[in-house]
Amino acid sequence: MNNNINLFTIGFTQKSAETFFRTLKQAGVKRIIDTRLHNVSQLAGFAKKHDLQYFLKTITDIEYLHILDLAPTIEILNEYKKGKGEWSIYEQKFLHLIETRKIEKIVTPEQLDGACLLCSEANPHHCHRRLVAEYLNGKWGNVKICHL
Asked: Which InterPro entries does the record match to this protein (predicted)?
């Protein structure tokens, strides 16, 4: 029996809608877990919350969840993005935030198995979705992470 939780992550920027949805479908993603603080911005294009929810269901039959507890606070986000802060400081503050929120009690292994954490960043290296995935693996020890 395989007890691993297969967790994907993806960012929507620098991807066409075709590439984005094809990638999710080919990976076998069952649900998207939106980890963005702001998911209704016009800048999100096809990934605006209600549009994305519709496209996921219609094109790929993928479920959509928005879990705000997996997003940074506006203060942490603004300090890093608008204040051109250091990644190491953002990472430290965000990890402290999700530890304080006890996200391992908010999401379940069942919710995450076959799920894909979504945010805007094209690459996972400087992105909170990677931090969420790695944090949960640290808590549960059986999360197999695949960045799409």
From this structure: DUF488 (IPR007438)
